[in-house]
Amino acid sequence: MSLASRFAAVVALSAIVSGTAGPARADGNVARGKDLAYTCLGCHGVKDYKNVYPTYSVPKLAGQSPAYITAALLGYRSGDRSHGTMHAHAASLSDQDIADVAAYLGAEPLKASGKPPAASAPEAVQVCVACHGGDGVAVLPDYPSLAGQHADYLARALEEYKKGARKNPIMAGFVATLSEADIEALADYFSRQSPGLETVARRTSRFSAR
Ligand code: HEC
Ligand code: HEC
Fold first, then answer.
1. pLDDT single digits (tens) 124-139
2. Which of 39, 155, 157, 188 is the most buried (most CB within 10 A)?
3. Are 107 and 206 within 8 A, CB to CB?
C-alpha cells in the first residue's frame, strides 16, 4: 500500500473510532485519587525507575489524560495488557478507585498542538499522526500521548502489541507492518518531542489535590 492510501485508511479508521461512544465513565475524585496513588508513586514517582526482568523504563504518566489512564488500568485488570505487577495493582482497584486515581494522575493532560511531524521524523510516523499527533501529543483524550516518553518503554509497548501480549484492535493493525528498525526509529522520535510527558512528582503544586 502506498503511504498516501495507508494514511487515508488511518484517517477513515480514526473517524470510526472517535465516533464510537466509549463505555460510561464515573467522574473521578482527585483528593481520593491522591491517597490511592500513594503506592503507585513508589514506581511512577521515581525518575528513570526501571522494571526488572526484562529491564525497561517505568512509563511516565504525568501529561496523560484521565480517559487514557482509565483505559490502560482496565486493560491490566482484565489481562488485555499482560504485566504481573500492574495486573495485581489494577485488580485491587474498583471502577470508582480507577476513576479517582485517573482523575488525580491525569489532572494536567498535554494539549494537542496540531503540529505536523518534524522534518527529522521517520517516514512511518505519517501513519501515527492521526491519533498520536505529529509531535506525539494525543489528538483525543482516548489516545495516549507519546511525547517525551522513555524510548525503551515505547519500543517495548509496540513489540507487545505486535506479539499480541497487549491486545488492542487499533494498535494491532498499525504495528503489523512495522519492522524492528521502524519501531526503534519511531520510539526514538516520539521520546524526543517536547513538551512531553513527565514522571509524576510526589510533592508539587501541580499534583496537589484540588
Ligand atoms: C512496582 C512498580 C509499579 C507500581 C507500584 C505501579 N506501577 Fe504502573 N506500571 C509499572 C510498569 C513497569 C508499567 C509498564 C507495564 C507494561 O509494560 O505494560 C506500568 C504501567 C502503568 C500504566 C500504563 C502507562 C501507559 O503509558 O500506558 C498506568 C496507567 C499505570 N501503570 C498506573 C499505575 C497505578 C495507578 C498504580 C498504583 C495503583 C501503579 N501503576 C503502580 C510499574 C508500576
Ligand atoms: C487510530 C488511532 C491510532 C493510530 C493511527 C495509532 N495509534 Fe498508537 N494507540 C492508539 C490507542 C487507542 C492506544 C491505546 C491502546 C491500549 O489501550 O493499549 C495506542 C497505544 C500506543 C502506544 C502505547 C503507549 C503507552 O503509553 O503504552 C504506542 C507506543 C503507540 N500507540 C504508538 C503508535 C505508533 C508508533 C503508531 C504509528 C505507527 C500508532 N501508534 C498509530 C491509537 C492509535
1. 999 999 999 999 999 9
2. 157
3. yes
